[in-house]
Amino acid sequence: MATIQDVAIAAGVSAMTVSNVINDHPNVRKATREKVLDAMARLDYRVNVAARNLRKGRTGTIGLAVPEVNSPYYAQLAAAVIAAAERYSLRVCIEQTGASRENELDALSLSRNRLYDGLILSTVGMGPADVELLKVDHPVVILGERIFGGPVDHVAMPNVDGAQAATQHLIERGCRRIAMVRGPVGEEVDVSSLRFTGYRQALRGAGLPLAPDLVQSMEALTLRAGARSARDMVASGLDFDGVFCVTDTVAIGVLRGLADVGVRVPEQVKVIGFDNVEESEFLIPSLSTIDPDHDMMARRAVDLLAGRIGQTEPGADHEEFISHFSVVIRESTGG
Amino acid sequence: MATIQDVAIAAGVSAMTVSNVINDHPNVRKATREKVLDAMARLDYRVNVAARNLRKGRTGTIGLAVPEVNSPYYAQLAAAVIAAAERYSLRVCIEQTGASRENELDALSLSRNRLYDGLILSTVGMGPADVELLKVDHPVVILGERIFGGPVDHVAMPNVDGAQAATQHLIERGCRRIAMVRGPVGEEVDVSSLRFTGYRQALRGAGLPLAPDLVQSMEALTLRAGARSARDMVASGLDFDGVFCVTDTVAIGVLRGLADVGVRVPEQVKVIGFDNVEESEFLIPSLSTIDPDHDMMARRAVDLLAGRIGQTEPGADHEEFISHFSVVIRESTGG
DNA sequence: TTGTATGCGTTATCAG
DNA sequence: CTGATAACGCATACAA
């Protein structure tokens, strides 16, 4: 494959002139440029990105580490990040971590290895205990709920407020015994625990009791687990008239589970989710949910990262950005 | 940031020995190895991937160019490709082309630039006319329906046969006036036209007429367009008792559109899709569909690519792989 | 406006 | 088992 040298020889100029042509430097005479372009075309020259990266110390690529791409929420987020990165001419490489702490740390070290100019890391496996590991000398933006106040920029969803608004919406629609379907209960802060806090606050605000048997805790936030949860609740004779689901994916499962056992939504039970994934509008019944403004989050994350990539020094203070949300009211809560 | 040289000095050995330790070469004395590992840890050494890539002429990364990640089908495919690539220790960088021919060619040239060791290219914008452009000297696997018999390996879905089976299933369930909801009608071969062929074959095989007014052609294969199509069909007084949707995404929209105008599925109209995206199982009603075995396709594509990456010469003959399919019967066709 | 010299960090080769 | 040397292809700084 042709190198810059080959082109230089073919065009009868120096390698440097070829480089100047490639990079659109102004100080190249038109005639020279033509000669070079012609030689490049003849030899089918392609820049060697690896060499350029080495020389420049930049790759023009940022990493995006998410638990899985095959999930509407992260897929949507990834698309938004790619779109936002385009404005900075940054390529995005998506890394799947499978929600494991180890893989998240791997992603972190890959960007340390200068494979990426920076990293947007969606933390699910890593927790507050890992904050120290984020003290790296290259740009990182954390996207998620697990780590606050770390030594890096942070973009988060309005989990507590959004969950509170969702629950409050159910209350306003007349629900009095509101269940929540959530992920595993653990020591540490995660999406489920934050949204549970919002749920609890809404109940308290309305003077409703927090009944432990109304809180369903599942192993994983999947369609299947959501469906099973719903069937279990009904099968166990639980009395409830509303469900706040920790994510839309879970809510889709819950809708299906309720249908399986003949419970009508929204007549008998009202359901609300969180995320506003694209499909939610087209379900039957369409799903009420919280829209956390993914696009804004993605844009903010990329902006922060791009800003850090420019500067030489670590940069003093780190930003915490929490996006705004809106309640999207659809058929599943009586529309 | 520490280089291999710094480590060498700190450990009192040569750079080469450090390199040998890093790459697990056998001929390093234990004591030496320890010294080096110790120095690496002290200096927090990280390999510079750009330098390694330059030297090796490999990046360990393959590109996956798809129209959009924010679409259940491609998201699922991407996840499967990532999983398959892992077995070869290959990283996957997802490139969004937005279904534009230009962006697809961009992706092609990026891998030519040695950003990637190879490329899996999902062609939607490029067509048979662009076959010549695929004659590149580095590994490419085409994933899609637009280009057959090109100068590269090719993995495709069982479009015609799958569509025929889907339509036939509707016929077996008693449908006699079967509509098809598809993408734009054009000169060239694409997913819609191939699946339309299958649809036509099934009708002919059953001795049913192909009624032009039963074929709905939409601008884009989206949820929204699917919903509108369904509403339009009903509003225009069209008489139909079954719908074959060109993709599951479209089918989800169609189910919603039928619900909007009070048509019951499967009692009045039966619906079947194509792709078997994860959500289809959890819809209300759950969606019958064709499962083209994404995992197999992804694995095959990665296997082919990995095989080409190994070899030095372009390799003579190119493989055409068409995956198998199965009909998944669910509630939308009467379960 | 163009060319020369140099080094980015790594590893293959081969000699010690 | 270890080390010296060179080269991967490009772009910065400076000289002409």
From TrEMBL, chains A, B:
One Pfam family assigned to this protein is: Peripla_BP_3
**GO molecular function: any one?**
DNA binding
Q: Which UniProt keywords apply?
A: DNA-binding, Transcription, Transcription regulation
Where would I find the HTH lacI-type domain in this sequence? 2-56
Q: Which domain of life is it from?
A: Bacteria
Q: What is this protein called?
A: LacI family DNA-binding transcriptional regulator
The organism encoding this protein is Streptomyces sp. 900129855
